[in-house]
Fold this protein.
Amino acid sequence: MEKKSIDGIMLTKYYCAYIEDYGIAVLSDLHIGYEEVMAQKGLLLPKLQKLRILKILETIFNNLKPEKILIDGDFKHEFSRNMRQEWNEIIEIINYIKERAELIVIRGNHDNYLKNILLKYNIPLHKYIKIGKYVFAHGDKKIDYDGFLIMGHEHPSIKIRDFSGGIITIPSYIFNDKILVLPSPSLYSSGSDILNGEILSPLLIDEKIDDFQAIGIDDRIGLMELGRVGDIRSL
């Protein structure tokens, strides 16, 4: 399955939600520069994150043709400064997007100093934004909002364990009738184990996650309707 619609929002296998009425494709938690941060800690990873994001964006533009790309927080990874790889890769991605669409950026908890890069393009860094009935916020902080919330921060995933102890991690959209939580397209972030109760966002603390629906993403298969979180947990 390539697409699934909920409340005027098209969920796609491209790690983005597409709101056709406004021509907006929404992604979250790109964490550009992750490899450089890990290298400074002694863990050398292939520099694939930027290439993966550009490939995903290319697919989004080819298939959805959005007028706007909205990054719903955590565009970058390093908290404390703008690192060289991170700065260069973010500029490359911004240029790629701006040649094709308007770019809207929401501030995430990793986005310290991102404003320094965005100022070069006169792109504001929003705490959150409302477009029509849709509210876009990263999800790391409590906000008062009126509308349907589209957020990131959680990197939700469904982790399925087999009898031998093996684990399959499935990046997933999770949603109810008022909130959609986006998966992360990052290669290096397996995400919060929703079945194990790993909830990070203060915007989800009072929500009954067992009643959320989960739709997983597999890069080969596409979207997978996994069902109600509580029902998956009981399997």
About this structure: The helical segments are 34-40, 49-64, 84-98, 114-118, 229-233. Residues 3-233 form a domain with the Purple Acid Phosphatase; chain A, domain 2 fold (CATH 3.60.21). The chain has a mean pLDDT of 88.
